[in-house]
Amino acid sequence: MPGRNPDRGVSVSTVLGRRLGGELLRMREALGLRQAHAAEALTASVAKVAKMERGLVPMRDPDVRALCHLYGEDDDDVVDGLLALARLDRERRRARGWWHHGPDVGGLGEYIAMEDAATQIRTWQTALVPGLLQTADYVRAMCVVSETWKDPGEIEPVVTVRMKRQARLAGERPLRFHAVIAEGALRQQVGGRDVMRAQLAHLVQMAELPNVHVQVLPYSAGAHPCMSGAFSILSFAEPGAVDVGYTEGIASAVWVESAAGTAIYDRSFDRIARMCLAPRASVDLIHGVGKGM
């Protein structure tokens, strides 16, 4: 669980903004041009171009077109794709989702925004039940042992945010959610036996939803390609918004935004899913672990 964001209030870099800026940076460097050349074409400062390429500021359509012209990009499909990406990025920045009106979610804010817009999420979890499938008591138990929230009064608002996020699994446009969970995460007694027994029963119940696909990687699977850690892959319906990978660490999070990078995540997830128990057998295992508690 990331802590409070010390940079709150400064320029925000978004996943889509970084993707757009990265593409334009690649085009500029391929021609051996400097940021000063781009600044001259836009009648802007070098500092502004640097912010654009880092995804720190939204980009206007005329600026995207001017840079494409400078870089000799005349393929209409490429230009239209960059324009669509710029428009989508601007819309995301303007959106003030429900999470902006609750407690400070720190570095998780960008993930929640992307989760809210995603059409599908695939997640591999080694030590935890996935957040969208957690019970309130399970969340409380994790908050209690976290160094992030010193005041017990701060925990309930965090629980509320987590529960509200789970609304994405229902409603008019339910999120397609495929969770692959290591068996160890089912046996780790987060909050004690009673909390964990209820968590596992909830997991079984959620697995019955038509848009939720739960698989368990049993201990017997042995070595596997994803032993380095947990990750998620978010997919979107909008043009230009291809899959992105997300890995969360103790003090930071990493977004993987390149097509080559996300392809590695895709292949790894597919491989780990093939090593798992089938959904019905997975539910049987979850149920059995719960009964054992």
Task: Write the topology of this structure.
Blueprint: H1 15-30, H2 35-42, H3 46-53, H4 61-70, H5 76-94, H6 109-117, E1 120-125, H7 136-145, H8 155-165, E2 176-182, H9 183-187, H10 193-206, E3 212-217, E4 231-235, E5 244-248, E6 253-256, H11 259-274, H12 279-292
Parallel strand pairs: 1-2, 2-3
Antiparallel strand pairs: 1-4, 4-5, 5-6
Helix pairs in contact: 1-5, 2-3, 4-5, 7-8, 10-12
As a whole number of angstroms, the C-alpha radius of gyration is 21 Å
Instruction: Specify the overall morphology.
Output: elongated
How many strand segments? 6
How would you state the average pLDDT, rounded?
87
Judged by helices, strands and strand pairing, the structural class is alpha/beta
- Mind describing the biggest β-sheet? 6 strands, mixed
What does this protein look like?
By secondary structure, this protein is an alpha/beta fold. The chain has two domains: about 15-95, 434 Repressor (Amino-terminal Domain); about 105-290, Endonuclease, Chain A (2-Layer Sandwich). The chain contains twelve helices and six strands. It has helices at about 15-30, 35-40, 45-55, 60-70, 75-95, 110-115, 135-145, 155-165, 185, 195-205, 260-275, 280-290; strands at about 120-125, 175-180, 210-215, 230-235, 245-250, 255. A six-stranded mixed β-sheet has the order 3-2-1-4-5-6, with helices on both faces. Helix 4 (about 60-70) packs antiparallel against helix 5 (about 75-95) and helix 10 packs antiparallel against helix 12 (about 280-290).
